[in-house]
DNA sequence: TGGAAACGCGAGCGATCTCTCGTGTTTTCC
DNA sequence: GGAAAACACGAGAGATCGCTCGCGTTTCCA
């Protein structure tokens, strides 16, 4: 390594031109479609470059390796997602009906995931790279924590282990519903979204339904 | 079927010795552990052979290619599974409480899947080979059909599309729960199994609860 | 306007994986 | 006992994929 006395920083910020930024966006978009259709491991960097209409060498001008593409793509989506669930899972007025809370949250997340199907493909595959799994875990535990605090505020007397377990269940159920939702379109997709809400409401209703002595299971019309 | 498979000329029936059958079982067991830990695509045939303590050449003495290993392994599991759910989802006395029906079915399937974790790995990965996907779809639609007939017998007046959708939901919810169950052990695993039952019972109860005027936990007009 | 740096190309290197082949060993059957 | 068939081995052929390298082109800036 006969390089200069510059501080050996891991990141040597390369000055990008507008052309480069455009190429990066192009490549990430191409990677999203290839990842969505074939999954991460099966997606070849040459295929991503071909999809973007550039040469393999050009791809490696902007990304050091295949993993970095998924990292960058996932990072941007996680950032978007966090702002989305920051609003969707914000502390809620305890008087709000459960249907409303669940319905609003599910609508938000479903809209996001339907707009960015690659997110599900990247987060769900068993073949995600190491650094990617960290991001996934971070997002996952972040969501679980939000759910936990939300539920603890509604059920202060419930054991912590039960709250955690229920939070994991809720997330797992949502993921299962998401898979079915993404597999359908139009009216059928809407119907599945309604079913996901039904599942979550009916699962959570007996837990939070009789807080404060309110025994009603479903709001009687 | 001793030796009369000659109607299909494609297969030249190779006469197996007891040693060969033992090797096949050995190889399938090794493949199960490798598939479970690394997934299908990431599992190398050399790794399977090494796990079984034989050479790569020996492996290909019994299986024409990597896919055939998964096919054979999956086929045997599907066969076992079908006898299992043939009993678990048998036509049920309409008077049986929902909790019992769901509880018994979930217990059976969970026991099977916990005994054979490779089944989940093979059926859930996005990287399954073509022929394998057919088996998966066959089992999947078989299960959905069973659920549909079971539910139609309880809800004769429900639209077919709703029944189908609910059946898919039930299967998806079970899969989501299975993933969580497999990720835990001991008492926590048992707790998750209970939660899966809770989810399914609470989801289905409003649908079948008020058949024949029997008012379940919830009574919706 | 000229030089440096960013951009772009595509053949191909090295690693890895599936599967084959030639050879030697064990089992079966007459 | 001996031939044929099944079993076993492991080096390596053939293919794929991630990634590199040398060189030509475009853009930026003094």
TrEMBL record, chains A, B:
Coiled-coil intervals, chain numbering: none
Q: Which UniProt keywords apply?
A: DNA-binding
The record's GO molecular-function terms, alphabetically, read:
DNA-binding transcription factor activity; transcription cis-regulatory region binding
Is DNA-binding one of the keywords UniProt gives this record? yes
DNA-binding region(s) from the entry: 44-63
Q: Domain HTH tetR-type, which positions?
A: 21-81
Source domain of life: Bacteria
One Pfam family, please name it.
Answer: TetR_C_22
The protein's name is HTH-type transcriptional regulator YxaF
Upper lineage: Bacteria, Bacillati, Actinomycetota, Actinomycetes, Kitasatosporales
Gene that specifies this protein: yxaF_2
